[in-house]
Input
Amino acid sequence: MTFIQILLVALMYHLTNTFASTGGMVFGRYTCQRPLVGGLLVGLLLGDVQKGLELGIAFQLAYMGAFAVGGALTVDVGVVSYPIMALAISSGLDTGTALALAAPVSVLTANLTHIMRAFNTVCTGMVRAAIEEVDYRKMFIGNVVLPQLFLAAMNFAVVFALLYLGSGAIESILAVVPQNILHALSLLGGALPAIGMAMLLKFNVSGNWMFIFFVLGFMMFAVMKMSFISIAIAAAAIAFLYYKIEDRPEPVPASAINFDDEEL
Output
């Protein structure tokens, strides 16, 4: 990867970070930070959209249940969606190995949140003093500038450590790890999308008959060998037809209509 590509990956990772709040939490964290979006954007940046979408789908299924409970982050989905995605595409890692690599890295970088919050307490003291002094410039620096600069430095350092220095280091680690362990990690990583799919079906399939949509999608991919784009177009058409059918007003029964004798 070139320096410019690494810089752009770091920028995308930073802009979708929780504390950056780019476009709000919905657009930043809960949309652009998702692995499927990250796979598309990183795939476009590195010139391999197909690989990016393949990894994005696998990561999306594996991490769809990852969210903060009471502000406590267990995994950093952003580092999976952008730097790990870029590392997997540029190094030619298979899906299982990429998922196995993403698990410990995402847990490790999630703990950096505590460092960010500790720094914010220092900024809070600065803002409190600025309020007492009625110094709006110092308020802005302590409340916006310093936290964002510290977050950007931390995020960019993570991405550069993984991409600029980490490719060779990770390959060296993989070279000394026994093959049976790598095989076990690959199998574990391959099982994560299945767990994610089970969670998706459990919460989204409200009736037994709706399972037919999952079967149809599987047949279109596994048997008919359709591309993801073709399946997405067909799914969008089916979803629109289903919406129009469900949106139709219920017919009023004839027995429910009251007639006035004077009008007859």
User: Anything to note?
Assistant: The CA atoms of residues 55 and 108 lie 21 Å apart. The mean pLDDT is 77. The longest helix spans residues 136-163. The chain has twelve helices and no strands.
